[in-house]
Design a protein that fits this description.
This protein has 511 residues and is mainly α. The protein has a domain at 351-478. It contains 21 helices and six strands. A hairpin with a 4-residue loop joins strand 3 (330-332) and strand 4 (337-339). Helix 16 packs antiparallel against helix 19 (408-438). It starts with 48 loop residues before the first helix and ends in a 33-residue tail after the last helix. The relative contact order is 0.10.
C-alpha cells in the first residue's frame, strides 16, 4: 500500500501509522533510512495521489488535484491525503491541501486519529507547529482515548510536549481513562527524562485516574519504574492516597515483591515523619533558602540551554531547541553524556557501550571467556597432578573437600574463573544474537519487551526497521564486506536525526 515500483524508491519513503506500542527508556521513533544514494523515480507521472503524497512529489499532487481530485476524500483505508502528508512531514503539501479545502482535524485510519496525531507519533515538530497554525485542535482524542499531549509523552517527544504546553495545553489533561501525562510517563516511560521534564511544569502529583484511582506514584510502582518513583517521591507525591482497592503506594510496593522499591517508599515515609518533628521544622526553615537558591540555579541552567525564552511579560514561551537527540541514542545519567546507538551502561568496565566501543566490548567478552576457560583448564590440571584424590574413585563430596584442602587458593581461582566464564559466555551469546538476528541494542530490546507486556497489539522483536537480515546485520555492525558479498551501510549515529523507512515489511515496530 506504500506505492508501486515507480514510487517506492523515492528519497523519502512514506510512513504508515503505528498502533500504540508504548515506549520504555528510548520510546517510539520514526523508521529510519540508512544513508546512501538517493533512489530514482522511474516515472512519477504514474503514481496515484496517495503515493505521490507519501513520497512528496508535489507537482504530481497538484496536477491530480487540479484535475478534480477531492482532497477531503479518504482512501480505502479511511485515510486522507492530509494524514499521509503529515506523517511524512510534507509541509508544502499540507499547506496546499488545506488551501484546497482539506479538513485539518479529519479523523481517519485504524486508530481514528487526526493528522496532528500522526505527526506527533512520528515526532515531526515542524509539522505539529504548522498544523496548529492552521487550526488543528490538540485536545481531540484518538480511537484509543489519547489527546495530542498524551501521545507526545507516550512516544517521548519532549520538544512537542513543551510546544503543546506553550500553546495552552493543560499539563493535567486527562485521557479517556482519566490518566494525566504524568501518569502515562510514570507507567510507560522507563527512562527518567520524560517524568523529570513533566515535573518542571508543576503537574498535579496527587491526581487519580477514573478506573483504578491510582496516582502517578501508584502507576510508577506498579510498572517497576524506579527512576519515576524516585523523582515523584522527591517532588513530594503523597504516600497516603489509596486506590480503588484501598492500597497505598507502600502496599503496592509490597505486592510488587521489589525490595528496592519497598525500601525507597519506606525510607521516604520515614524521612517525612521525621520532618514533623518541631526541632527539624526549625532547621528546615533555614534549608528553604538554600533550596530556593539551588532550584534557581537549576532553572537558570535549564533556561540557558535554549529550551525556553522568558518574554518581557515574564511568561515562559518556547523559543527553540538547541540539542536534538540522535536516533537510537540515550542520555546516561551515570556518564552524564549522550551515547550514540546506546547498548547499555556496563558495570564491569564502568562506562557506556555505544557505537564507538561496542565492537571492542565484544572483544573484551571474548578474551574474558577464553581467559576463564584457560584458568579452569589450569586448575583442573593442577588438581590432577598435585592432589591425591580422584572423582571416579572417591566420589563427588570427598573429591570436593580434598581439592579445597589441597589448595584453597587454587579453589578460589577456580570459583572466580567459573563465575566470569559463565556470565561472559552467556552475555556474549546474547549480544551476538541481538546483533545478528534482531539488529537491536540491549536498550532497544528491553523497550520492546516492555511494550509487548503493555501493548494491545502484537509486538515482534524481529520486525523492526533495524533488522535487515542476519548477514546484513553482521556486515553493518562489523563494517565488513566479506570479500564483496555484502555492502555494509555506513551510518553516523551521532548525527542521524532524520527518521525514514528502510524495512520492506508493512507492519514493523519502531523501537
Amino acid at each position: 500500500v506504500w506505492g508501486g515500483s515507480s514510487c517506492k524508491n523515492h528519497c523519502h519513503g512514506p510512513h504508515r501509522p503505528h498502533g500504540l506500542n508504548c515506549p520504555g527508556a528510548e520510546g517510539e521513533k520514526d523508521l529510519p533510512v540508512l544513508p546512501g544514494a538517493y533512489p530514482i523515480v522511474e516515472d512519477p507521472s504514474t503514481c496515484d495521489i496517495v503515493k505521490a503524497t507519501q513520497y512528496g512529489i508535489v507537482e504530481r499532487c497538484k496536477e491530480l488535484v487540479e484535475a478534480g481530485y477531492d482532497v477531503r476524500q479518504p482512501d480505502k483505508e479511511n485515510v486522507t491525503l492530509l494524514h499521509w502528508a503529515a506523517i511524512n512531514n510534507r509541509q508544502e503539501l499540507v499547506k496546499y491541501y488545506i488551501s484546497k479545502g482539506a479538513i485539518v482535524d479529519q479523523l481517519g485510519g485504524d486508530l481514528n486519529s487526526t493528522p496532528l496525531h500522526w505527526a506527533i507519533r512520528q515526532g515531526h515538530l515542524p509539522m505539529v507547529v504548522l498544523l496548529l497554525k492552521c487550526g488543528a485542535d490538540p485536545s481531540l482524542i484518538d480511537g484509543e482515548g489519547f489527546s495530542s499531549i498524551h501521545l507526545a509523552v507516550l512516544f517521548q517527544h519532549m520538544p512537542i510536549v513543551a510546544y503543546l504546553i506553550s500553546k495552552g495545553q493543560n499539563i493535567d489533561t486527562t485521557d479517556f481513562n482519566g490518566q494525566t501525562p504524568l501518569m502515562l510517563s510514570a507507567q510507560k516511560a522507563i527512562a527518567p527524562e520524560p517524568t523529570r521534564f513533566l515535573l518542571k511544569f508543576n503537574p498535579s502529583l496527587n491526581a487519580v485516574d477514573n478506573v483504578q484511582k491510582n496516582t502517578a506514584l501508584h502507576w510508577a510502582i506498579t510498572s517497576g519504574n524506579t527512576s519515576a518513583v524516585d523523582l515523584l517521591l522527591e517532588a513530594g507525591a503523597s504516600l497516603d492516597i489509596k486506590n480503588v482497592k484501598g492500597e497505598t503506594p507502600l502496599d503496592v510496593a509490597y505486592q510488587s515483591l521489589n525490595r528496592f522499591m519497598v525500601y525507597m517508599v519506606k525510607e521516604e515515609e520515614r524521612m517525612r515523619s521525621r520532618r514533623n518533628n518541631r526541632l527539624l521544622k526549625i532547621v528546615e526553615k533555614y534549608e528553604v533558602i538554600s533550596r530556593v537558591i539551588t532550584n534557581g540555579n537549576k532553572l537558570n541552567s535549564f533556561l540557558r540551554r535554549g529550551s525556553f525564552k522568558v518574554s518581557e511579560m515574564g511568561c515562559p514561551k518556547i523559543k527553540f531547541f538547541k540539542s536534538m537527540k540522535p536516533l537510537r541514542s540515550m542520555h546516561c545519567l551515570a556518564c552524564e553524556s549522550c551515547v550514540a546507538r546506546c547498548d547499555q551502561h556496563s558495570l564491569w568496565i564502568g562506562q557506556c557501550i555505544g557505537v564507538g566501543n561496542h565492537r571492542y566490548y565484544l572483544l573484551f567478552l571474548s578474551f574474558l571467556m577464553m581467559t576463564g576457560v584457560w584458568l579452569l583448564h589450569g586448575t583442573l590440571l593442577y588438581w590432577s597432578n598435585h592432589c591425591a584424590t580422584s572423582y571416579g574413585q572417591d566420589g563427588a563430596w570427598t573429591y570436593f573437600t580434598q581439592i579445597i584442602h589441597c589448595s584453597p587458593w587454587v579453589f578460589y581461582i577456580f570459583t572466580v574463573a567459573c563465575f566470569h566464564t559463565v556470565w561472559a559466555s552467556l552475555w556474549l551469546v546474547v549480544q551476538l544474537y541481538q546483533i545478528a538476528f534482531l539488529g537491536l541494542t540491549s536498550h532497544e530490546r528491553m523497550n520492546l519487551l516492555i511494550q509487548r507486556k503493555s501493548s494491545k497489539h502484537p509486538v515482534s522483536l524481529r520486525r523492526t526497521p533495524y533488522n535487515l537480515g542476519c548477514f546484513q546485520n553482521l556486515a553493518d555492525f562489523f563494517q565488513c564486506s566479506c570479500f564483496g558479498m555484502f555492502k555494509p551501510n555506513v551510518v553516523d549515529w551521532t548525527k542521524q536525526y532524520n527518521l525514514f523507512h528502510t524495512a520492506k515489511e508493512k507492519n514493523v515496530h519502531s523501537v
